[in-house]
Specification:
The complex is a heterodimer. By secondary structure, chain A is of the alpha/beta class. Chain A contains twelve helices and 14 strands. A four-stranded mixed β-sheet of chain B has the order 2-1-3-4, with helices on both faces. Chain B starts with a helix and ends in a 6-residue tail after the last helix. The chains are: A alpha/beta, B mainly alpha. At the A-B interface, β6 and α4 of A face α1 and α10 of B.
Chain lengths: 313, 380
């Protein structure tokens, strides 16, 4: 039965042992990915962890040093050009023309994808309305706000209705309000059948993904749905409240069975290794009777647990 | 599928033209570079040195010595701006740079003059004949030195104040195409070649680099656009720019400096288009090598200097050593320099200049192929 299920499952991206070296430096190390069609998949990690390089490898912008990649059922190697009509890419840095207007940018991108005449005009009108850019149609792209630029970039990346969309830190230059809105649009695209791969360093964004990979120094430290990652976390979260938390933190972090302790408001959030039988009692003793409470793990806890040399054991 | 190639090339062409028209500075330079340089060079460059400042050491102090001085002034080659009592004083003035040469007339100049066959035609050329004076020249500048040298056999009839039967020259020289020997006639068509080299290579050499630097390229290479489409779409607008510059230079040259445009306009257009394409593809090749706009600029200058100095614009091609001529042949500008001067001044047509035209055509095709091959749709 599980075998049957696997057969039917279609993947937008399949990567095995994907590696990219720049000289001595390994930017991406043996990355394995299986991203089902129609899902939103996240790359979560700090700057320089290999998120952008991975996306560039998967779009064919960079050549991999090792590994196999299959995009939308076709091997990437040798099909880069034919795949370009089926994928969309929104770069981290705004990559449209500052001294062209919004409409001129869309016209240019439309023509590059082979749209012409009424078909192009209709598609551009549709996008201007969808991404709320009708008032800015005649404005130079360079003079727009971060949020407007980001909507224009998304409009251009999706103009040819790609089946697979790559977004490289799409929300790094926008305010929280615009970020919320942006994600609504991503879910609309996803509902229409687009597979989306998005990189981010925001926990709340990562939490919205169907599945994600936590990356660090070119390595994938963990992957799965946010819930599964939280459930599988090899640590228990204990919140400690009381006074002199800064000093307590110092002593706690030195204990080998404690992965991390971080102050959040009036609490100290402590990650205790799963092998500790009774974490509440264990922390209570260590913190000399301060109030302790079991807490629900968050994605940030997962991130902290599996990065910074705390992964594995 | 076939039509989408043209849609894409046209889209890049329109985009490039719009960006160019919004870049006021660049747009202004397209017109100002040829105008200002033409006015400047048209008036300033003159290989025919006149009114050279010189000094005089006159030890004879006779009416004849003053007559010699006046005869020299009448040639307009030299202006006597200072007098010195001795050669020593005059030499110091040359070293300081006050004067470029000094004329020394010895105390016995009158006797020498009377015995000179150029003065008195009845005198025979004998071993006793002596020059009437001596020029001491700052020979470091060859143009100045040769102008003074030309005075060596100056007729002395004017000093003698009588017209005498002159000996016939060995050769008669008839100067076609530029009988008045005005430098500007040769400069203006040459300037078309130099200015086109400069602007065409400069614009395109930064074309691809600019897309990289502004981050546009990362998006562009994930689209289905092909490198050859990008190359053609990017250089096409500059063909118009180049033709506009040719028109500016030749019409200003014609109306302001009375440079004759003898050849037919079709040959002129044909040769200009060939050269513009060759220069643009050269720029594109540089553009695929350079990583930054500064590097592109340096490479342009690396090409520009030999284009000015070796192409025959400044110095005659035929006077260069063979190795330098080979280098010159490799530059598109040398071929165009030959063609535009032939067409504009000597009414040659494109067919007469087939070899140069063919070379420019081959250069363009080769350049486009190299640029497309070098430009990979990859990062890093």
């Amino acid at each position: 039965m599980t075998f049957d299920h696997c057969e039917k499952m279609e993947y937008a991206i399949e990567a095995r042992g994907l590696t990219k070296r720049f000289g001595e430096n390994i930017a991406v190390n043996k990355l394995d990915l299986l991203i089902p069609k129609g899902s939103i998949y996240g790359f979560l990690g700090p700057n320089g962890c290999g998120k952008s390089t991975s996306i560039r490898l998967l779009t064919g912008l960079l050549e991999a040093s090792e590994g196999d990649v299959t995009i939308l059922g076709k091997p990437l190697l040798g099909h880069e050009e034919s795949l370009k009509t089926r994928i969309g890419y929104m770069t981290q840095k705004f990559s449209l023309y500052d001294n062209l207007t919004v409409r001129e940018n869309l016209n240019f991108v439309g023509a590059i994808y082979g749209f012409a005449g009424k078909r192009k005009k209709a598609r551009i009108e549709e996008l201007l309305a969808l991404y709320d850019l009708e008032k800015q149609a005649k404005q130079f792209a360079g003079s727009m706000s971060g949020g407007q630029k980001q909507r224009l970039a998304l409009a251009c990346a999706t103009l040819h209705s790609p089946e697979l969309l790559f977004l490289d830190e799409p929300t790094s230059a926008v305010d929280p309000e615009n970020r919320r809105e942006f994600w609504e649009r991503l879910f609309d695209l996803c509902a229409a059948g687009t597979t989306i791969l998005v990189s981010t360093h925001y926990m709340d964004e990562a939490e919205r993904c169907h599945a994600l990979a936590i990356m660090e120094e070119g390595n994938k430290r963990a992957d799965g749905s946010p819930q599964a990652l939280m459930n599988a976390m090899p640590a228990t979260v204990v919140e400690v409240s009381g006074n002199k938390l800064r000093q307590l933190k110092q002593t706690l972090t030195q204990h080998p069975d404690i992965l991390s302790a971080a102050q959040i408001g009036a609490h100290l959030r402590v990650l205790v290794k799963k092998k500790v039988q009774n974490p509440l009692l264990f922390i209570s003793e260590l913190s000399h009777g301060r109030e302790t409470l079991l807490a629900r793990p968050s994605l940030e806890d997962v991130f902290v647990t599996c990065t910074g040399g705390r992964h594995g054991d | 599928m076939g039509i989408s190639i043209w849609i894409r090339i046209y889209a890049i062409f329109v985009k490039e033209l719009k960006q160019l028209s919004r870049d006021r500075m660049t747009f202004g330079m397209i017109i100002m570079i040829p105008l200002v340089q033409l006015m400047l060079f048209g008036y300033a460059i003159n290989t025919d040195a006149r009114h050279i400042p010189v000094g005089l050491v006159d030890l004879s102090q006779t009416s004849e010595s003053r007559a010699v001085e006046q005869a020299l002034v009448a040639t307009q080659s030299v202006d006597f701006i200072a007098r010195y009592r001795s050669i020593k004083e005059a030499e110091i003035a040359i070293t300081k740079g006050d004067i470029r040469a000094v004329l020394y007339l010895p105390a016995d100049m009158t006797r020498r003059l009377f015995n000179h066959p150029l003065y008195d035609h009845k005198q025979a050329d004998s071993p006793l004949t002596q020059p009437i004076g001596q020029w001491i020249v700052d020979g470091s500048d060859t143009v100045i030195a040769s102008s003074i040298r030309a005075l060596r056999n100056m007729p002395l009839d004017e000093v003698a104040n009588h017209s005498a039967t002159r000996t016939a020259p060995s050769f008669e020289v008839v100067q076609y195409f530029n009988p008045e020997q005005r430098t500007v006639v040769n400069i203006v068509p040459g300037l078309v070649a130099v200015i086109l080299t400069m602007t065409m290579i400069l614009f395109t050499s930064s074309a691809i680099v600019r897309e990289h630097e502004h981050g546009n390229m990362e998006f562009l290479i994930t689209t289905p656009v092909r490198s050859i489409e990008l190359m053609i779409g990017k250089i096409a607008p500059y063909v118009l720019v180049g033709l506009l510059q040719v028109a500016i230079i030749l019409s200003v040259g014609h109306w302001v400096f009375s440079v004759p445009i003898k050849g037919n306009l079709l040959s002129l257009l044909g040769s200009s288009v060939l050269f513009i394409f060759a220069s643009l593809t050269l720029g594109l090749v540089l553009s695929t090598i350079a990583k930054t706009q500064l590097q592109a600029m340096q490479m342009t200058i690396f090409i520009l200097l030999p284009s000015i100095l070796l192409s025959g614009f400044m110095f005659p091609y035929d006077a260069m050593p063979v190795a330098a001529q080979w280098i010159a042949e490799a530059l598109p500008v040398t071929h165009f320099m030959r063609m535009i001067r032939a067409i504009a001044l000597r009414d040659a047509n494109l067919l007469l200049l087939g070899k140069d035209a063919l070379w420019l055509g081959l250069f363009t095709v080769g350049g486009i192929i190299i640029a497309s091959l070098r430009f990979k749709k990859k990062l890093g």
